[in-house]
Here is the input.
Amino acid sequence: MTGYHLAELNIGTARAPTDSPEMAGFMAGIIPVNALADTALGFVWRLQDGDGPGATALRPCGPDVMVNMSVWQDLESLRDFVYRNGPHLDFMRRRRSWFHPMAVPYLVLWWVPAGHIPGLDEALSRLDLLRNEGPGPRAFTFRDPYPPPVPAAEAAR
Amino acid sequence: MTEISVIAALEDPVRRRLYDYVAAQGGGVSRTEAAAATGIGRTLAAFHLDRLAEAGLVEVTFARPAGRSGPGAGRPAKLYRRAMTEHQVSVPPRDYRAAAELLAEVVDVTGAEPELQRAARSRGAAAGRAARQRSPALPDDVLVTGALAAHGYQPYRDGGEVRLRNCPFHLLADRHPPLICGMNLALLEGLLSGAAVTGLSARLDPRPEECCVVLEESKNNDD
Here is the structure.
């Protein structure tokens, strides 16, 4: 236990409105995939709203941009869910039929004190940080991860 | 040890057979098991297994035989299992891995995954058709496991499924999982359709240290 949890934000520009036939596979898949996340080892929290499955109705980055945000106990538990869970990996494999590719980073990871639930402002500023400065201890990616901060008391020892 | 001397450790045909056997098993293998499986004496097997361990091609663990513990259970047996490190030698020097990394990054950024999956499916289908033409009368599952083994997947039966012990694209799949696992799934779907195999279907079901794809008996199989 490090006293820190891992937060994740992932955004995507949808190819079509959520009620269109193009997005039907995504909208049908999001509920069971979210249910898998809720019971996954190391899952702590995920962003939800009242108007659609998961956070699909929240649009803080523009009308077509969907967001997904969650908190996990550590990097490995998130990685296990994202890349080593069959149904989730299969969902990701199909993401290009639902979301436009992006030439800039669209997924950011950062450490939060255990118990802290990040807000969207915090998450989007971490994504900006990653986009502007590249991976670092305050905003990173699966491919370039950084360890959790060392608590001040421990660092002073 | 240099990459070349690691590969050279496999030059001896007996040692190579032992390595192939150990690599194809899921867990640790004892000297006795390896000797029996390759038809050589236990002492000779022990000698070659230890050479493989020195070269880093297999890892050594110690474990008591299942079901025995406490005093009187005997000494723990020395077990050998495939090492996860990979070795590559190319003469003259080539670096396809770096090129593959770059191409994968570009496919990620440009969103060309559907095209990659299409290309993979047709490449798999060509391999499947070729396998079928070579052995038209072979039963489906023998044909498929033969073709998978030839492509380095190290297939094995697990109940009604064919699981794949080795991922031929391991490093790349580790860096770009949805991209490479999706490509791999398309390759294997293509292989099945090219070989006209209807009793098996491919789906993503990653397991630690194995390939992300599993072949399962199709539910609508009516033969």
Q: What stands out?
A: Chain A has one domain: 4-156. The helical segments of chain A are 24-39, 75-84, 86-93, 120-133, 152-156. The mean pLDDT of chain A is 92. The longest strand of chain A covers residues 4-13.
